[in-house]
C-alpha cells in the first residue's frame, strides 16, 4: 500500500512572517478608521514564541483577523512545551480592554470595536482650550446725513465714529469631553464670542491657546467644525444620502468607500437618525423630517470627519423643548468621545442646563458669570439676589440682567461681583494651570500628527518651533479639486432627478430667453451695407 500524501510543513520563520504581515495590515486598517490597534500587554505571550496555525476568521468591526491556536514554551521552564489556546488568551486580553467587546455567538466569536461608557467618560486624548481677554470693537455706521455731509461738504469737520465694543475682555476655558455653553439675552454677544473662538472674524484682540500653545487659523479650521444657526440642506435628498455626500466630500481618498459608509452608519446611530435615514429632508412644499431631526443632520454634516472641536451657533433655536433637549443630549454624546463642544444658547430649560459642564453668561458684551451651572444658585445667593423657589435659574439670570440694565449703574456691580467670585473660587480649579494637565497631557493626535502639549514655562527649542511651523503650513484639503467637483455634480444630478418640474421650468426659461435673443438676428441683411447698419456704423437706411 502506498502511503498517503502528507502536507509539507511550513517553516516556522516563514509562517511567522506571514502572520506578522497580516497583523500589520489589520493595524493599518484600524488606523484608517481612527481606532487604536490592539496592543498586547507584557504578560500576554504573543511574541515570536507563538506559532500561528489553523487560521480561524474573527470579525473585527467589519475587518477580518486571524486568531489561532499555537504553542508556547516558557524559556525559564525545563519541562516540555505546553499547548495553550491562542484565541482564548487573545479574547481574554480583549475582555480586559476598554476598546473591545467580545460577544459570545457560537464557535466563531464576533469581536466588535466599540467605546464603552468608561472609555467615553475618560477620553484618552484631552484637549484644553484657553482664551483670555478677548475684545472685539467695531465702529458705528454713519447716518445718512453724515454720509451726505461727507460727500457734498468735505470741508465740514465730521465727528469721529463712536466705537462699539461687542466683546469686553472675555476670558474662559474649555476641556475635551465637556460642553461649554454661552448664554445671554439677545444682543449680548453670544454669536460674536463663538465666531471669535472659531476665528471667523478679524480684529479680535486677546490670546487663545490650545493645550498651552498658540495655534494658527489654518490649524484650527483643520481640527474644528462650525455649525451655523440656519440649516442649509438639499430638501430632496434623504438623510443618509446627505451624510454620504458629506463623507465623500470631506473624508480623504485613502479611506475606502466601505469605511465611509460605515462612518455614516455609525453617525446615524449616534445622532438617533436611523428611523428616518431614508426620509427626505423636505421643505415648505415637501413633507420631510422634523425640525430637531433636521438640526441633527446639520450637525452630522459637520462632524462627519470627527473634529476635535465643535462650534455651534444656537443649535436649539426654533425648536420645542423636547427637540432641543434631544439635540443637546446628542452633543453631550459627541463630547463624551473626547471632542470639545462650544455652543451658544438663548434660554435653556432646566433639563438642558443639567447637560452642560461649563457655562458663560454674557450681558452687553461683558461676562457676568463663568463656571459650572451647579454654582449658579450659590452665585446669585451671594450676590444678594437668590433664585426664587420653583423658578429656573436661567430665567432669573435674564430677568436680573434686564432689571440691572435699567438702573443707574447698569450691570457694573454684577461684573465686579463676578471678578471677586472668580478670584475666590477659580484659582484652585483652573484647567490650564493645574498640575493635572502638566502631568497627564502628553500629546493630541491631529491627522496622524502630534500637536505638542507642553505646559512648562521653558522656552521651546528651535526644532520644536520649526516643527510646529511646518505642521501649521502643511495642512491640505482632504480631497483634490476634481474629486470635490465630481461629488458636487453627482449631488446636483440626483437633486435634479427628483425635482423634474423645477428642471423643466429652468430649461423652458433658458429656451424662451434664447428665442427672444435670437429674434434680434432674424432676417438680417448679410451685405456689407446691412452689416454696417446693424452695427450702426452708417445710420443711413438700406434702400
From TrEMBL:
The protein's topology relative to the membrane is: Multi-pass membrane protein
Q: What is its main location?
A: membrane
Q: Where is this region: Disordered?
A: 36-97
Keywords from the UniProt entry: ATP-binding, Membrane, Nucleotide-binding, Transmembrane, Transmembrane helix, Transport
Q: Give GO terms: molecular function aspect only.
A: ABC-type transporter activity; ATP binding; ATP hydrolysis activity
- List the InterPro entries: AAA+_ATPase, ABC_transporter-like_ATP-bd, ABC_transporter-like_CS, ABCG_dom, ABCG_transporters, P-loop_NTPase
List the subcellular locations: Membrane
| Gene Ontology cellular component annotations, sorted alphabetically | membrane
Q: Where are the transmembrane segments?
A: 503-524
- Looking at the record, the residues that make up the ABC transporter domain are 129-389
Name the Gene3D superfamilies for this protein: P-loop containing nucleotide triphosphate hydrolases
Task: Give the matching PANTHER family.
Answer: ABC TRANSPORTER G FAMILY MEMBER 16, ABC TRANSPORTER G FAMILY MEMBER 28
What name does the UniProt record give this protein?
ABC transporter domain-containing protein
Which species does the entry assign this protein to?
Physcomitrium patens (Spreading-leaved earth moss)
Amino acid at each position: 500500500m502506498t502511503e498517503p500524501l502528507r502536507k509539507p510543513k511550513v517553516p516556522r520563520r516563514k509562517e511567522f512572517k506571514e502572520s506578522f504581515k497580516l497583523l500589520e495590515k489589520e493595524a493599518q486598517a484600524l488606523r484608517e478608521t481612527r481606532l487604536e490597534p490592539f496592543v498586547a500587554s507584557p504578560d500576554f505571550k504573543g511574541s515570536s514564541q507563538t506559532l500561528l496555525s489553523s487560521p480561524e476568521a474573527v470579525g473585527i468591526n467589519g475587518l477580518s483577523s486571524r486568531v489561532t491556536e499555537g504553542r508556547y514554551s516558557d524559556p525559564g521552564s525545563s519541562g516540555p512545551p505546553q499547548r495553550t489556546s491562542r484565541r482564548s488568551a487573545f479574547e481574554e486580553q480583549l475582555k480586559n480592554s476598554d476598546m473591545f467587546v467580545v460577544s459570545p455567538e457560537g464557535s466563531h466569536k464576533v469581536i466588535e470595536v466599540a467605546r464603552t461608557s468608561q472609555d467615553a467618560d475618560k477620553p484618552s486624548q484631552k484637549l484644553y482650550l484657553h482664551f483670555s481677554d478677548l475684545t472685539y470693537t467695531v465702529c458705528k455706521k454713519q447716518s445718512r446725513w453724515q454720509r451726505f455731509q461727507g460727500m457734498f461738504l468735505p470741508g465740514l469737520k465730521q465727528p469721529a465714529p463712536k466705537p462699539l465694543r461687542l466683546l469686553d475682555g472675555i476670558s474662559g476655558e474649555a476641556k475635551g469631553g465637556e460642553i461649554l455653553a454661552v448664554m445671554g439675552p439677545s444682543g449680548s454677544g453670544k454669536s460674536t464670542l463663538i465666531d471669535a473662538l472659531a476665528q471667523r472674524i478679524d480684529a479680535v484682540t486677546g490670546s487663545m491657546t490650545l493645550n498651552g500653545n498658540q495655534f494658527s487659523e489654518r490649524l484650527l479650521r483643520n481640527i474644528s467644525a462650525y455649525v451655523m444657526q440656519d440649516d442649509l440642506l438639499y430638501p430632496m435628498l434623504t438623510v443618509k444620502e446627505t451624510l454620504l455626500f458629506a463623507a465623500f466630500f470631506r473624508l480623504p481618498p485613502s479611506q475606502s468607500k466601505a469605511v465611509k459608509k460605515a462612518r455614516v452608519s455609525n453617525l446615524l446611530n449616534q445622532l438617533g437618525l436611523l428611523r428616518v435615514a431614508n426620509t427626505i429632508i423636505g421643505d415648505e412644499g415637501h413633507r420631510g423630517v422634523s425640525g430637531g431631526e433636521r438640526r441633527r443632520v446639520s450637525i452630522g454634516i459637520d462632524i462627519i470627519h470627527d473634529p476635535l472641536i465643535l462650534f455651534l451657533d444656537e443649535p436649539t433655536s426654533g425648536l420645542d423643548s423636547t427637540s432641543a433637549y434631544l439635540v443637546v443630549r446628542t452633543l453631550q454624546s459627541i463630547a463624551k468621545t473626547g471632542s470639545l463642544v462650544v455652543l451658544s444658547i438663548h434660554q435653556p430649560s432646566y433639563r438642558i442646563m443639567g447637560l452642560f459642564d461649563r457655562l458663560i453668561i454674557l450681558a452687553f458684551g461683558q461676562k457676568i458669570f463663568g463656571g459650572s451651572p451647579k454654582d449658579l444658585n450659590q452665585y446669585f445667593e451671594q450676590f444678594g439676589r437668590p433664585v426664587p423657589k420653583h423658578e429656573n435659574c436661567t430665567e432669573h439670570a435674564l430677568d436680573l440682567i434686564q432689571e440691572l440694565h435699567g438702573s443707574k449703574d447698569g450691570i457694573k456691580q454684577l461684573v465686579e461681583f463676578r471678578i471677586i467670585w472668580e478670584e475666590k473660587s477659580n484659582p484652585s480649579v483652573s484647567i490650564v494651570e493645574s498640575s493635572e494637565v502638566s502631568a497627564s497631557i502628553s500629546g493630541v493626535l491631529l491627522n496622524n500628527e502630534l500637536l505638542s502639549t507642553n505646559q512648562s514655562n521653558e522656552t521651546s527649542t528651535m526644532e520644536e518651533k520649526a516643527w510646529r511651523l511646518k505642521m501649521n503650513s502643511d495642512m491640505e484639503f482632504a480631497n483634490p479639486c476634481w474629486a470635490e467637483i465630481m461629488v458636487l455634480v453627482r449631488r446636483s444630478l440626483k437633486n435634479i432627478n427628483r425635482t423634474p418640474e423645477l428642471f423643466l421650468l429652468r430649461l423652458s426659461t433658458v429656451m424662451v430667453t434664447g428665442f427672444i435673443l435670437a429674434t434680434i438676428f432674424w432676417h438680417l441683411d448679410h451685405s456689407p451695407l446691412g452689416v454696417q447698419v446693424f452695427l450702426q456704423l452708417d445710420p443711413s437706411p438700406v434702400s
